[in-house]
Design brief:
Elements (H helix, E strand, L loop, with lengths): L9 H9 L11 H4 L1 E11 L15 E3 L3 E12 L2 E10 L3 E6 L4 E19 L4 E15 L1 E3 L2 E4 L2 E15 L4 E10 L10 E11 L5 H8 L8 E9 L5 H6 L3 E3 L2 E4 L9 E17 L4 E14 L5 E17 L3 E15 L13 E13 L5 E11 L10 E12 L1
Length: 405
Amino acid sequence: MKKTLFICILFVTINSISQEKENPKTKFTNFLAKSYYSLNFGGIFYPFSNDNLIDGFQTETFSRNWFSGRLLLGHKLTEDLSVQFGTMRPASWFKYDNVNNIGYDRSVWINAWSLSLKKDFQIYKKTSFYAEAGIANVTRFGFSIQDQIIYEDAHYASLLYGFGLQHRVSDKWRLSLSGTFLPKSSKHNQPSISQATLGFEYHLQQVDDTIAKEYAHNDYFFPKNIFQVSYGTGRIGYGVNQFFAMSLPVGNFDSFGLPVFWVGAVRAQHAFSLTYQRLIYRSEKIFSLDWGASITYFQSEIGQSDVFAISIFPVLRFYLLRKKGYDFYTNYSIIGPAFISKSDIDGFKSGPKITYHDTMGFGVFFGKEREYNVELRIMHYSNGNIFTRNDGVAIPLQFTVGKTF
């Protein structure tokens, strides 16, 4: 489960920009103040079987990992009616073991992005029942054996519905018990999908004007604008990308690291980026939200293809250490809409030209007025399994220098 709860933050960014002149940066915009995110984990059930395979292919055993997650960003239209956008998927894929008893193990990937309405019905002081209904974009990656399609790919729209119970712990926190369902699609040879989870909602809370003023006049540095120039080369390898995708080979262990980012089948030999970021919101000391835009050129590793990408994106920045001479931070950006000049690069199914841009990095602001910036970052382009072509692009570690103003 790598698409973290920040996958939908762009949903609020455009609205934030439109209200920026009226926002003192230490208060949420009206849109953000009515928003929440939800993180849920539990079991997922989809009865794949030999019936889904073409005639002549079957197996006696299957590998199933029931653990799954659902990540959502919500916005309250009224106190008891919300709109939600997010994704649902298993932690690992369903696998057909030893197909036809000749050593072929093949996985089936499944992913669903959803847009839904959620209606709450209060049944006790702090406990409510809710019903949910909407649509889901379902993507399935099937498999082939020796160039013969055994289980075809699928990409289609499906009804999504669900229900659950919530308990209000405080103004910010809700505990949830949820069930979510997608019906069977005979047309696409797809079994039904059911998920049962435990999780929580975190509702953003607006601070009052007095506290917002105190935040705005404290001594902690938050840059209003940043301009950055970045360069990376594949000659140093992709170890950092692999570590944060939990796919770094170490000895006999091929999945060392942290599962918080992605690599990509297409790899950039050289990459150059220009980036602009502007502050939207800042907390008292630790957190800020920016919006950004970038232009990136990279040359692919295998075919030496020249590729350009233009992106807009949100940036979540967390200040880890504040000292007299510098401020050290980490940042994370995900699901930034991007246009990439080529599709299916170097023979890989990297997807269409409209895709998404993701970055993560560590950096410092330094100088008397914190006017200078250096940062190490990795980047990734993919469409989040919205389409069946999603091999993705890995941009190697980039060294970045910047100027604040």
